[in-house]
Amino acid sequence: MSRTGEVIDTAVGAGVNQVDSIIFMVSEDLEQTIRADLLTKAVKKARGDADVVAAASGVTITGVKEISVGGYYPPVLYENVRAGAADMKTQAAIPTPIEPGQVKITAQVTASYLIG
Questions:
Q1: pTM for this entry
Q2: Closest by Cα among 107, 113, 3 to 48
Q3: Which of 39, 70, 80, 103 could be a cystine partner for 108, CB 3.0 to 4.6 Å?
Q4: d(CA 78, CA 95)
Q5: pLDDT in tens, 10-36
């Protein structure tokens, strides 16, 4: 991450004349580990909420009827501002800035419970 701007500048200095975007993402293993943790927490939260609602309704949960899982992990896309040739000459002495961002991994659980 710390050398991304340097790599772009080196490529442009070597003749590359267009850089459209850079995409940052987590590894599949890390994504799966994080999603597993999020799903576990989501299931516990869904069950806790269902227990509260069931108790308030005077019933008890006797089982799980259905669970569906959703979620989305969008990679972080860094798009550069396209500049004209005149602007490129002016900016040549300024290193390409790359700002770190955050990767957001989400998980969603929808559950239907059996009550008695």
A1: 0.63
A2: 113
A3: 70
A4: 16
A5: 888 898 888 777 777 788 899 889 989
Using left for φ > 0, alpha for ψ between -120 and 50, and beta otherwise, residue 15 falls in: left
Burial of 44 (0-12, 13-18, 19+ CB in 10 A): exposed
CA distances from 51 to 58, 60, 66, 106 (A): 10, 7, 16, 24
Burial zone of 63 (CB within 10 Å; 0-12 exposed, 13-18 middle, 19+ buried):
exposed
Whose CA is closest to 102, among 76, 69, 64, 77?
76
End-to-end CA separation in angstroms for the chain = 55
Taking only the tens place, the pLDDT of each residue in 36-71 is: 999 999 999 999 999 999 999 999 999 999 999 986
Cβ-based neighbours of 105, under 8 Å, separated by 6 or more: 26, 31, 34, 35, 38, 71, 73
